[in-house]
UniProtKB/TrEMBL annotation, chain A:
Its EC number is 7.1.1.9. It is a multi-pass membrane protein. CDD domains: Cyt_c_Oxidase_III. The chain crosses the membrane at residues 16-35, 47-68, 89-109, 159-179, 191-207, 227-256, 276-294. Gene3D superfamilies: 1.10.287.70, Cytochrome c oxidase, subunit III, four-helix bundle. This is cytochrome-c oxidase. Belongs to the cytochrome c oxidase subunit 3 family. It comes from Dyella lipolytica.
From TrEMBL, chain B:
The chain crosses the membrane at residues 39-60, 80-99, 120-140, 160-188, 200-227, 247-271, 283-307, 319-341, 353-377, 389-413, 434-452, 472-494. Residues 27-530 form the Cytochrome oxidase subunit I profile domain. It is found in: Cell membrane; Membrane. Keywords: Cell membrane, Copper, Electron transport, Heme, Iron, Membrane, Metal-binding, Respiratory chain, Translocase, Transmembrane, Transmembrane helix, Transport. Belongs to the heme-copper respiratory oxidase family. It catalyses: 4 Fe(II)-[cytochrome c] + O2 + 8 H(+)(in) = 4 Fe(III)-[cytochrome c] + 2 H2O + 4 H(+)(out). SUPFAM superfamilies: Cytochrome c oxidase subunit I-like. PANTHER family: CYTOCHROME C OXIDASE SUBUNIT 1 (PTHR10422). The lineage of its organism: Bacteria, Pseudomonadati, Pseudomonadota, Gammaproteobacteria, Lysobacterales. It comes from the Bacteria. Cytochrome c oxidase is the component of the respiratory chain that catalyzes the reduction of oxygen to water. Subunits 1-3 form the functional core of the enzyme complex. CO I is the catalytic subunit of the enzyme. Electrons originating in cytochrome c are transferred via the copper A center of subunit 2 and heme A of subunit 1 to the bimetallic center formed by heme A3 and copper B. Its EC number is 7.1.1.9. This is Cytochrome c oxidase subunit 1.
Amino acid sequence: MGQQQDIYYVPSKSQWPIVAAVVMFLTVFGAAHWLNAEPGESSFGKTLLLIGFIGILLMFFGWFRSVIHESMAGRYNSQVDRSFRMGMMWFIFSEVMFFGAFFGALFYIRMFSVPWLGGYGHGVLTHQFLWSDYAASWGSGGGNGPAHVGGSFETVGPWGLPLLNTLILLSSSVTVTIAHHALKAGHRGKVLLFLGFTVLLGASFLYCQAHEYMEAYKDLNLTLGTGVYGCTFFMLTGFHGLHVTLGTIMLAIIWLRVLAGHFSKDHHFGFEAVAWYWHFVDVVWLGLFMFVYIL
Amino acid sequence: MAQAATHDHHDEHHDEHHEHQNFFQRWVMSTNHKDIGTLYLVFSLLMFFIGGSFAMVIRAELFKPGMQLVQPYFFNEMTTMHALVMIFGAVMPAFVGLGNWMIPMMVGAPDMALPRMNNLSFWILPFAFALMLSTLFLPGGGPAGGWTMYPPLSLQSASLAYVVFAVHLMGISSIMGAINIIATILNMRAPGMDLLKMPVFVWSWLITAFLLIAVMPVLAGAVTMLLTDKYFNTHFFDAAGGGDPVLFQHVFWFFGHPEVYIMILPAFGIISEIIPTFARKPIFGYKAMVFAIASIAFLSFIVWAHHMFAVGLPLGAEIFFMYATMLIAVPTGVKVFNWVATMWGGSMTFETPMLFAVAFVILFTIGGFSGLMLALVPADFAYHDTYFVVAHFHYVLVTGAIFAIMAATYYWIPKWTGHMYSEFWGKVHFWNSVVWVNVLFFPQHFLGLAGMPRRIPDYNVAFANFNMISSIGGFLFGASQLIFLGVIIHCVWFSKKKATDRVWEGAKGLEWTLSSPPPHHSFSVAPVIHDEELAHGHVED
């Protein structure tokens, strides 16, 4: 617990925090302006959003570059390493809670709001007075609510692409673990091979999901606007997909860093942090596969 | 084993180096927990006055029945913005600022665990509030549906996207701040500073930080659903599409209830530091205090629906949430009992921090009792959305959280600045605050019990007298805070009276072993911990 340190480390001043605050502000200010623009009207919000977003990418590049330089120069002692580990763990915990909000919404909608609208239990009067012809069900029958918002639709079956995606993500978890063991054993070639597999598996997952989305929009009439079924489906799988995208990019960067020889047998927190993140993304997917696709 | 804080820069081997930095480098690029803590506290003070000016508008409009000063929509903007600014701009940043300043000094660390992220956590906030406050001047106006942003009302607001993104930014800031505090407490303690030797303030922040990381993402999720419902054609909160507006309330209050403890647990910690100092006794029941905070934090996750009793919940849910809510009175009672027991038989003096702390114990307890009344489902059906609720949460937040922040400011400002504040003007500030805050909020209990609804700019003439009294109290309470500002300005720039290192005769703990003001890096050499030097004395295992 930070008690064997010979020396405390306090990082030098950095311009990156204030740069980060500015580009984050530009991004959301631009986005808010764009959302509020009249349809057809050209909005400077879009430009601002783009500038902000590019700024965020550059900021990440610059900030991480300086941290990597400092780490490579051996400035970080084991206490700093532990702080980084705690930071990453608690960050992943906050991500878990973020997904928790959307899973909670899904459970509430399926367990309460849809059955109540159909006249079960507690919400019986809403059913009687407003939507007496609505028979509550999930899926293509009544998943878009009593007003059948978005028109009739089909759901994505779990045993096609989603099953394949499950297998892809599970194998990617195995390959990233093999890569980690290889890193600890000092076999850089093996690390590159298996980490490369992991990146490819992540990319194929994203390809399959993009394919699934296109199919849903074109052939199944399942869109973000398809009542609560559509919005829970796309928001949950969409946020997960964003995290997979981020994870794949991070894995690719770690692959480049392995190639550049940044990691040693016992000093490779960057690798481990991304591996943790990848496992987290994997576990969330298992929850999605179970509750969004199968049940 | 000698321990010394090191910087990357070769020229930074002595404490005076920060004098060579220019203004921008010192305040904007800082990696120093004290400078960042100061930024947080100054920002919070600014927001306190901005939010307070909104409250003055509200009380001026409610001075007498009828519409006289402002348009109803503007009134609604004021009630909404007052809450958002005070919660996210004043109270939370003030606690983070106090934590930033004090936690490294209290656990014997040179700085926070992740100093650059610490700087980012702060610098997000001015931008987030610029974004949110700018909506007041934009076409369509600011948010006016209440800080709770209930749909479908909030979805009609043109400024929804701005507020949602501002909330996202504040959430990112809070999560990073909380991660930093947890990493500091768990990883940066000096040798011998065991978990159960930490000051109660540090414990309270450890638990608060956990709450923040657990619930700020849930708020982010809730407001994201609002955003997609308005702009991207989702139907989370639209019954026609199978959703439910009540779903938002569940997700929001799953954040919202732990949030109210986020705003009071650090206050508990502060009071648990101040009372032992001025009673010149170790805190009574140190471990019970720590476990009480932990129990309150746990219970805060299973009581959220008590904010929604009148929304039409199933009976079983109402009963569960009623009993779970009442259970919180047990650990809170333990805390109040222990504060009183700490004072019992102590040789007490009443400097300004102690006055605020004693006022906290009494007035917060009043707020706690009115909370118990609101927890009763059948009674809440009558109290819900009345001024009784307003009176309740202002007793716990103003005379609770804000009084604790003021107590902390008086208690630690001699340590921060190296100068004593003016005890006379501090007491003037205290007595004005404590009198007028009761004139302001106590009549609101009666108004609420008589049925006056909250968030309405006009009211029945039957409520005229108490509203006028309340408004007078409000104006004078607001004016009293200018004294606070004056005392702080005097202490920082003009006070001639040097503070000693220990500042208070009965003060114990590591932070008082440092000079006043403390060195640039709090502990460049890890301190040796002596049990009898700690505020709570020797804890038996």
